[in-house]
Amino acid sequence: MPEHFTPEARAPRLSRRAVIRAAAVTAAVVGVPLQTWAAGAHPAAAAPSAAPELPAGLTAYRTPYVNWAGEITHSGLWACAPRTAQDVADLANWAHREGWRLRARGKAHTWSPLTITGPAESDERVLLMDTTHHLTGMELVTPPAGAPGAVRAQTGVLLETLMAFLADHGLGVTNTPAPGELTLGGTLAIDAHGTSVPAAGEAARPGHTYGSLSNLVLSLTAVVWDTGRAEYVVRTFHRGTDDECEALAAHIGRGLLTEVVLQVGEEVPLRCVSRVDISSDELFAAPGSAAAGRGNTFADFLDRAGRVEAIWFAFTDRPWLKVWSLSPQRPATSRPVSHPYNYPFSDVLPTPVARLAGRLAAEGAWFLAPELGLAQYTVAATGLTATLAGDLWGPAHTLQFYLRPTTLRETANGYAVLTRRADVQRVVSEFVAYYSEQLKSSALRGRYPVNGQVEIRVGGLDRPAESAAPGARPPLLSVVRPHPDHPEFDCAVWIDVLTQPTTPGAHAFYRDLERFLLRTFEGGYALTRVEWSKGWGYTDTAAWADQEVIGTVIPASYGRGQWAEAVGILDRLDPHGVFGNDFTDRLVRV
Fold first, then answer.
1. Where are the alpha helices (DSSP H) in 280-414?
2. Which of 215, 234, 267 delimits the end of a domain?
3. Which residues form the signal peptide (predicted)?
4. By CB atoms within 10 Å of each CB, which of 122, 446, 504, 570 scores lowest?
5. Are the C-beta atoms of 423 and 297 separated by less than 8 Å?
6. Catalytic residue at 208?
7. What separation, in Å, do the N-terminal and C-terminal C-alpha atoms of the chain show?
């Protein structure tokens, strides 16, 4: 197959010149100090000292592993770079014989332990497979009826590379995550999403989905166990025909895909307008309130454009609101762009923000959280003007990708609240009211468990009607799979709260927030599900540790029958657990 690489706080005032200067200094990357990456983790155990003898001439090499926020790390695991799908099958058979486990490793842009669980992982004899070296091919293929285009792509290709390739052929997708440096395989494993629902009067577009990227899958090729041959083999499954396809399209680390065929639609340029002048009281107002009557609520913007995101820095009162809209022609006031990542002030932080973030982590000056929040807001508000980024227009992928790896690395919880479109503002306002009160009451006690931002987006569900594959069902473990008992739910409110990884009290804050979400949105007018790649299952000291959430709450949020079907298929495809780890062993079970 051919390959193509084609609140109240005191903060320093940031001048326009300072913002521009800081945005140009690409070396000014803010991160968590190495010694704090894995707070509370014991030193990494050594991986097996002798290099494993791999099949088919593959060579093992040592590589460290550090996830996005540096909370899950290892100083050196054995890894290799498979060249073909058959290499992966050979590795799976080798791992089965030798008692090893295989984990796909792309760009490690994840928070949850779906790849490795931490420093002790080496005791389990784990081999990482880096798909980004060779499994990166892509080509257009004949689309099925109902889709303008289709692309066959190997799973190590980066999203930004794939989307640029599609755009060169007049094709694209409706939803992508904000970072472009993610592998296709990683995004499908956790059913990655963007932010979009139909605007008022917007007609569905062939080939597109308002749901997750996993809902675009037409077929996929995976390494699975063949009972008759008693070995792992490469096999292709088709959407709407093979139930295995619906299970593997969002497998949360319990499978390994080597190639997929995705439907795509015609590319339509987008306009993105940013605003920082609407108060949180107005944007997140309760339905029916006087503030909501002014026409500037989150739901109002959703109706107008269908594509909205609010980034709300801690202890501030004016969120950064982004509103994307379909715009075939460039509006006169919009600045045209031809490449992604158009907010340099967000990617490379100015010195005042960097210093504050550094003091919080290095000096334990967590009381500076209000100053950091205000500084971040000031940078965004000033930077939008200084870089002429408040009103942008261009190819869809150039505005959908806006988060570089050089941004401030924070930990994040993540949830999708399924609800009716008519109840989006209710969900948002109730969450915001709880979060604001908890943040305020914590500060009054001298505690600052959150020093990052809240991010709120809204996306569609994985509707089979949006698939061009006849007989398609939603991916079985997709977070935005429609719930069988709630056909009235037609969208999901995505909620993330970010903070620096070592912040004292963060886990307890997240635990209480999670319990609020699960208690409040428990299936009446809304239902909470966890976002696979983020933080969830909190105790007062750790994430992914609440056994009730893992073993009971999560399966119930899908419906027991749906969950059991998915687990049964994944177990059948990998009965020896070659593709898994101790965490997925506990999670993906009935």
1. 280-283, 298-305, 344-347, 351-363, 369-386, 396-400
2. 267
3. 1-38
4. 446
5. no
6. no
7. 39
Q: Label residue 145 exposed, middle or buried (CB < 10 Å: 0-12, 13-18, 19+).
A: exposed
- Tell me how far apart the alpha carbons of residues 93 and 562 are, in angstroms, rounded to a whole number: 30
Residue 270 clears pLDDT 80, i.e. is over it: yes
Distance in angstroms (rounded) separating the CA atoms of residues 396 and 328:
10
Cβ pair 126, 77 in contact under 8 A: yes
pTM (two decimals): 0.92
Residues 262, 585 contacting (CB under 8 angstroms): no
Q: What pLDDT is attached to residue 59?
A: 96
**CATH code (residue 95):** 3.30.43.10
What are the pLDDT digits (tens) for 371-388? 999 999 999 999 999 999
- Helix (H) or strand (E) segment spanning residue 394: strand 391-394
The Cα–Cα gap between 228 and 316 comes to 62
**pLDDT above 50 (res 175):** yes
Of residues 455, 514, 531, 565, which has the active-site annotation? 455
- 239 and 194 in one domain? yes
Please give the structure tokens belonging to residue 453: 């931002």
In a domain, 493, yes or no: no
User: Does 231 participate in catalysis according to the annotation?
Assistant: no
**pLDDT, position 13:** 40
* One domain for residues 217 and 102: no
* Cβ neighbours, 10 Å, residue 388: 11
Beta-ladder partners of 233: 224
- Tell me which residue of 28, 26, 132 sits closest to 79, measured CA to CA: 132
pLDDT (tens digit per residue) in 523-537: 999 999 999 999 999
- What are 323's strand-pairing partners? 273, 308
Q: Are 264 and 388 in contact (CB under 8 A)?
A: no
Number of domains in the chain: 2
Count H helices and E strands in the chain, helices first.
Answer: 17, 20
Question: 496: helix, coil or strand?
Answer: strand
Instruction: Tell whether 145 and 122 lie within a shared domain.
Output: no
Q: Which amino acid is at 213?
A: L
Same domain membership, residue 144 and residue 119? no
d(CA 503, CA 164): 38
**Does residue 266 have an active-site annotation?**
no
Dihedral angle, C-alpha 402, 408, 413, 414, nearest 10 °: 0
Residue with tokens 């984990």: 103
109 is catalytic: yes
What single-letter amino acid sits at 291? A
24 has a pLDDT exceeding 70: no
Options 251, 457, 463, 473, the catalytic residue: 457
Question: Whole domain around residue 125: which residue ranges?
Answer: 61-130
pLDDT digits over 233-256, tens only? 999 999 999 999 999 999 999 999
Same domain, 154 and 227: yes
- Which secondary-structure segment (H or E) carries 93? helix 85-98
| Sign for the pseudo-dihedral over CA of 499, 500, 505, 510 | positive
Please pick, among 103, 105, 109, 463, the residue that the annotation labels catalytic.
109
Residue of 267, 282, 309, 514 marked catalytic: 309
pLDDT at 279 over 70: yes
Looking at 236, 267, 298, the residue that finishes a domain is 267
Confirm if 99 and 124 have CB atoms less than 8 A apart.
Answer: no
Q: Of the ranges 41-55, 61-75, 193-207, which one carries the lowest mean pLDDT score?
A: 41-55
